[in-house]
Amino acid sequence: MNLGNWMRLAWDRAAAVVLIAAGAVALVLGWVGVSGEAFPAKQLPYLISGGIAGVFILVLGTVCWLSADMRDEWTKLDRIESALNRLADTGLVDTNGTRPATAKSVGLVDSKS
Amino acid sequence: MSLAAPSPMPLWTRRDATVLAGLLVAGAVLVALSWFFAAGRADAGDQLVFVTLAVIGTLVGTTGAILWTARGRRLINLRRSLLLGTAPPPAADHAVAAALVAGPAGKWFHRADCLLAENRGWATSTRSQHEAAGRRACPGCRP
Fold it and tell me: What interface predicted TM-score (ipTM) does this complex get?
């Protein structure tokens, strides 16, 4: 799979990589800016725009990456649920013991959302 | 990698997304305003309040991220336990796991292999004895 396809299909991970790289660049630029100024009044804006904003962007990237992980896990659970339902529909097994409680049936998710 | 087809049931609701977006935008605005006002002042003492404001903005955004992640993780764990159940402990651990222990003044009783009870030398009692002493099952090891 080439990079373009990967970025289209795994957009959330691509966004995470970009954001984490941007956060790291902001931190480095902040450090460079602070180290080049002699007066605290000139350094503090770099601390905000480079240091604190860099951390903020890193948090965004981390959320994107963790969200992608959780979406993948949720999709796998979808597959497991449909496989269990297919198994129950074959009539070859005891339905009471096989058909799973679904996320929707127990109110875990709102079907309208 | 998110290569799978989109799930028919979304993990997060629109409300979750709204809360996350609101907190992230609020945090980002606080950081941006802090930088804008701090950069326009000549005295470092006057700028410190804006540094604090920027830190608060980052904390606001981080709070949104934590809420989002915690909700997703909780829903996944719940759904996984509904679909797949809880794995039984390994056979070799049955004897240890069956023993229920508690501290003398504790309000929870635990499985003997619970991380909260490890290496404490607590006495073993039956479930009914623990319950008669007013103790409740540990929500961590769920004896």
Answer: 0.76
